[in-house]
Amino acid sequence: MPIPSRDGQDGRRSRSLPGILMFLCVLSFLLMTGCTTTKNMVSGVAADTALGVEDKFEALGFPKVPVSYPTVYYDGPEWRNRLTELVEGAEDYVILVAFLASECDENQAVYDTICRKADEGVDVWLLIDGTSSFDMTESRYHMRTLGRLREHGVHLFEYNPISINRLVGATNLLYREHRKIVVVDGETAVLGGMNINYISMGDSTSAAKGQRDMMFEVLSPELCSYLADDFITVWNTLSWEEIPEGRFAKSNHLAMPIENSLTAWYADQSGHNYTMSSLYGALINSAEKSISMLPFLPYCDKFMLQALRDAVDRGVVVTMIMPFDSRPGNRKASQYMVKDILETGVDVRREKEADEFLPLLHEKLMIVDGLYTVVGSSNFNYRSMNLSSEVVMVVKDASFATQMTSHFDELKDGTRSILEDEADSWRTVGAFISFLGGFFGG
């Protein structure tokens, strides 16, 4: 999928609505049947039985980076306060990337701190997706524009903005900036699933005010360097304001190895760089005992399903937890997919419906053989593999895997296995229509 042009327009008139719908239907069919990177999950390096997972990572070009033991933030307000602290403590620069970002009462302190630090001379760069102003979560009732940030010298860029004029480039509109990244002074890196908006930073104990999610903070100049370099590539491709080479060089006083560091691998998918399917494929095909997954929206194509089926056939126990989504359309779309996943032999579990809905489980996580833990922005679905910028980190550490497995098991206690008869009853025409939207919309 090509990177959008700088101005995002080509001057042609918008098509009629029927023409646009016809075009999107044809495009959807072509994407579903042909244009997919997920074939990498069942062929090539990722499926090479002669290679171990770490050999696959090396062959696929995923950088190995030392990181400190990750600090995990499970709560929106807790992460909001920590992000405010990180920005407040910045001395040189801050890089922020978010899929959805908007100002509201709950995160006012974050944006006020960003403005104040920019006023003090700290270089703040903020890249947000163009769907931020079309946020369909609870945030839409609370959001305020981020335009004022530019008045304080914040470098703000909106990725792939949505407008009627740009419908003529509908293929570009499918591609979104889905990463959630923080880099501070070349020392601290954070990635995960939380956006800088109301729903991510609201009260995660309230169904109306938040969602359950995670962010992972590490100390790692090397990881910061990779994140910064990839940020420069994306920014300079899209924006007229170019970042000079070497602007985000890592800090000298942290150039020494991190004490008691863990081994991790970094994968960034942005622009034409499609990496997620190979990374997930390498892990799934190398699993020997167990795979635990929080996929969020598991809309899988045939190659993703085949990778899961092959793992189960090897004797790997694969467990997948789906959230109970109170949004009818999203729930129907996910339910439609369940039958296909069940047929691979995966134990598909869903959170039990409660009298009072839990905040949406938005976490993305995969744990393989109690040793490798995948964290970051990527869902396990077609969109994240093919139509979104994503970033993940794979941490190799049994202790950290145990910590995250405990978290997974706590969630599992509130779930039930889905049976085949129930999955069959979910395969309705209405659910299929919702599924098509979810398959490409994520």
Describe it.
The protein is an alpha/beta fold and 442 residues long. Helices cover 36% and strands 20% of the residues. The protein has helices at residues 17-33, 53-60, 76-89, 108-119, 148-151, 170-173, 198-201, 221-238, 276-286, 302-313, 328-342, 382-386, 398-412, 420-425, 429-441; strands spanning 64-67, 71-73, 93-98, 123-129, 155-159, 176-177, 181-184, 188-192, 211-212, 215-219, 262-269, 290-294, 317-322, 347-351, 360-361, 365-368, 372-376, 388-396, 415-417. Strands 1, 6, 11, 12, 13, 14, 16, 17, 18 and 19 form a 10-stranded mixed beta sheet that branches. The longest helix is centred in the middle third of the chain and has 18 residues, at 221-238. 47% of the residues are buried.
Short description:
This protein has helices at 17-33, 53-60, 76-89, 108-119, 148-151, 170-173, 198-201, 221-238, 276-286, 302-313, 328-342, 382-386, 398-412, 420-425, 429-441, and strands at 64-67, 71-73, 93-98, 123-129, 155-159, 176-177, 181-184, 188-192, 211-212, 215-219, 262-269, 290-294, 317-322, 347-351, 360-361, 365-368, 372-376, 388-396, 415-417.
- Beta-strand content estimate: 15-25%
Q: Count the beta strands.
A: 19
Query: Count of helical segments?
Result: 15
Fraction of residues in helices? 25-40%
Major beta sheet, specifics? 10 strands, mixed
Q: What is the CA-based Rg, rounded?
A: 21 Å
> Spans of 5+ residues with little confidence (pLDDT < 50)?
1-33
Give the N-to-C terminal Cα separation.
16 Å
* Nearest-integer average pLDDT: 86
Structural class: alpha/beta
